[in-house]
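Attaching the record inline, Q. Sequence:
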Amino acid sequence: MVILASDSPLASISEILEAADVLGSGAWKPESSRIGRTMAQGDADSLSQDVFDLFSLLRDRQVPYLLVGGVALLRYIEGRNTKDIDILLPPKSLKELPEIVIAEKDGDFARGAYRNLRVDLLLTTNPLFRVVHERHATTHRFHEMEVRCATLEGLILLKLYALPSLYHQGDGQRIALYEADLTMLIQRHRPDMEPLFTAIEPHVEPGQLHELRKIIDEIQQRIDRIRPAFQEPRSPNQHPEPGERPRPNEFPTGFDMGNAASKPVY
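Structure, as predicted:
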C-alpha cells in the first residue's frame, strides 16, 4: 500500500504536510483519513487550497517541473513524512513563478514559500538534476489533475547523489533518512541498480561511486535477511531456482546469526 494512490485528491498532500508540521516525525499513517484536523480547520483548509493552487499554477503556466522529495516518494512507498514540497525545474522557470517567494538560494538549490507552503527547489543547472528532469519523468494522476513527478529511478538517483555530501557534512540524521528511503524503494520495487550506477558515475568522484556501491550492497544484504511475511518456508527437499537469491533462512551451514558482527554503514 502507498499513500498517494492514483486518483487520490490533492488534499492528500496537504494532509501529509499538516501531519509532519503538527505531530512531528513519524506522525503520518496510511490509515489516518484526516490527520490534519489536529490543526485549526481553517488552517487545514487553507493549506489544502494552497496545494491545489500551486499545482494549478504550474500546469496553467506550462512550467516543466517535476515533483521530487518526500511527497513524490509516497507514490512508491508508505509512511514517509515531510514538511515541504520539493520541485525540480529549470532556473528560468522561476521568472514565471513570482508567487514563490525565494528566501534563500545556494547554487543549484533554492528555498522559498508559496503562501503557507514551504517549497524547496532543485535547479537543472546541476547536470545530474538535468538528467533526472529529462530522462526520469512521469505523471501521477490526482483526482483534480495530473502532476508531473520523478520516476522511481529518478528518485533513487537523487538520493544516491545526495549521500556523499551528507557524509561529508556528518549529517547523521539525514543520512539515516535517505538510506531508509533507499532501503524501502529497493525492497518494494527491486530496481536494476547497474544502469543507475552508470547514470550517476559522471556526476560523482570515483571513490564516492565505490562507497555508494558499498552502501547499496549493504542495503541489499539487509533486505535479504528480511523474510517477507508472505513467503512460505521451503520443504527440506526443495531447492532454489537457478539464479534465485537464497532466502533469509538459507544461509550456509555454520552461519550463526546470533554471533554475526554488525557491519558499519559508511
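The CA atoms of residues 233 and 249 lie 8 Å apart. The chain has eight helices and seven strands.

More tomorrow.
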